[in-house]
Structures are given as C-alpha cells and as structure tokens.
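Hey team,

Filing this mostly as a record. A colleague (T.K.) asked me to run one chain through the structure pipeline before their review meeting, and I want the input and output archived in the tracker in case anyone asks later how it was produced. No errors, nothing strange. Just documentation.

Input sequence:
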Amino acid sequence: MRTLSDHLDSLARTGTLYEKLEDDAVRCYACAHRCLIREGRRGVCKVRFNQEGALKVPWGYVSSLQVDPIEKKPFYHFMAGEDALTFGMLGCNFHCSYCQNWLTSQAMRDPASDRAGSYIREVTSREVARRGAREGAAVVASSYNEPLITSEWAHEIFSHAVEAGMKPVYVSNGHATPEVLEYLAPYLQGFKVDLKSMQEEHYRDSGGKLEHVLDSIQLAHEMGMWVEVVTLVVPDYNDTTEELMDIARFVASVSPDIPWHVTAFYPTYKMARTPRTSVDLLQKAAEIGQEGGVRYVYAGNRPGQVSEYEHTYCHNCREKLIDRYGYIIRDYMITAESTCPKCGTKIPGVWTEEPQAINLRGPGRPRIV
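Output structure:
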C-alpha cells in the first residue's frame, strides 16, 4: 500500500535553499531550524529530506486551492476588498497544540492526519497561476500549512502569478531565515506573521524560538514587504495584560503602522477543552494594542461583535475609511492615491489602484467566488 510519504516523495524535486556538507549531509535554511539533514533523513518539517546528498523539497501539488477575500488571511491593509487565490501543501515546522489546520500541517507527524493524503491534487505552477487569473484574483497567497517549508514551490508559482498581475503574499508563522526572505524578495510583497506569544517557553513547546520570529518581522519590514501581525488570543495562555502589552510594544517598535490583529481562539485539536475567547477579552486586547502604540488594531473571528475593531479609521482624523462585517467590506473610502478623503493623510498599506471597482457586499449578499 502506498503511504503518504511515498506519494509526497515521488513528487519532490531538488531544492534551492540548502548547502551541501561533508558525508552527503545537507544544511537546510528554508526556516530558522536550519536542520542538519543526513542522507536518508528528514528535517523537522518531515517534508524536506536528504536523498543521496541532495535536499528534496515539496513540489507539484496542492492540498487546497481556492479563491476567497484577502481579509480572510487576514490582511486588512493589503489590497483590501480584493480576492486572493490561496494554495497550501502539507507539513509544518511547528507542532502547535491549538493548530486550526492540523490535519494538513501535521501530516507525517501525527498519525491522525494520515488522511491528509486524500487532499493531494497534482498540478503545475502555471495551472495554479492561471486559476487565479481566471477567477480575477488580485493576490496569490501561500497558506494553510507553513509556506516557508515549501518556498521553492511558492517561488515558482509566484513567478507566473506576477506575470499575470497578481501580488504574492505569505501567511506564515514567521520562523524564517534571512536567506529564505532574500530568496522570496523578488516576488513576495506581503508577509503576515503569527506572533503567538512573547514567552520563550510557549515557542519551545510549539517547536520554535521567539527570537527568530521577532527578527523575521523586523527584517521583512526593513526589506519593504508589507507586514501584518496576528496574535490568536488563547485564554490562560497568552492573554495577560503584560504579555499583550509586550506584543503591542514590539509591533509598534518595528513600526506603529503595522496592523496588529488579535483574533479569537476556538477549541480545536489538542486544546478542545479550552474555552473560546470572549468578546470582552478581544476588546481588552485591542485596547491594549492601541495603548501600546499600534495605530491600526483589529479584532477578528467575532463578526459584528467587536464594534470599532473591525473597521479601518484614519489614524489622523479618525474618519471611518473601511466598514467591515467579518470578511465582508460594506463601504470603502480610501482614495486612489491611498489617502483619507477627509484630511488627505496617507494611509499605510498596499491599496487597490481602482477603489471604485471594489465589489461591495452586505451580510445579506455574500461574495460569490
């Protein structure tokens, strides 16, 4: 019987993000683990492996491919109101106990995710880009599993997507290296990072290091990528005033213009008995973000319940610029010059050049893709 690893390995190709060492070992630098992988072994992610002294990497398939609002990623200051073609693969360099995509991310690590093999759809990079163009997507996003570990495949897709007029983004845990960000820089325009905690022990439990994520946020911003930061607020995990303030102050120290999304946890995977994040806690987190110096703070996963924290306001005059309900944009006022129509202030972000063409939707008229 063909196993999941057999199937994935048959699709793999020799990668780019590694160096050869003695005795047929390789050093991978697709992510900050920088795995030393000896011949016949796999990296932490389980999907990058050493075959006869060459690093083989994921290629030629997607586990999911769909078009949905860019706000779902979430990006609120990157092509707001547009659609994103989102693709994913299998595997992750973390093993978070509350992962919402654990079935695909923990493939080849958690036996319960073996059925992820049924999601594999073989496809070429050009076919992925053509799908986005056909659906009218303005953005192409690598998401669902950790995109850093499949960066060679994303790089190939992005090269075709840019030719078709799409803007590439990553939805990542941010456990990156300078090498992988430099490799992606010719194409990658948006970098959404999950900043899970400011406690090193929490990152250690998930299989990473906090400093690498903080460094990657700083470096991506310095490289000119549009960065947004997301923190899933989990009760009794990362919800203290002190920790939330630490996150807010860090984000503001990189740039007060980086949007910070505080989103609601819901029980899942190995934390199925942890209570869902309350609206009050989300609003408290958002208020802390503003107090910590972040100009644009958003609360997510609670449509219609978090008042001002769903919408975008001018940081200068507080004019409402984008009215949202969940992922739906109901009103859009940012000008074609990316300014506030009331006071003329430049609104930080990457905005559509034709705001009048945005297809506004209301709760009773869901977007159809």
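Quick notes for T.K.: Residues 149 and 213 are 15 Å apart (CA to CA). Residues 363-369 have pLDDT under 50 and may be disordered.
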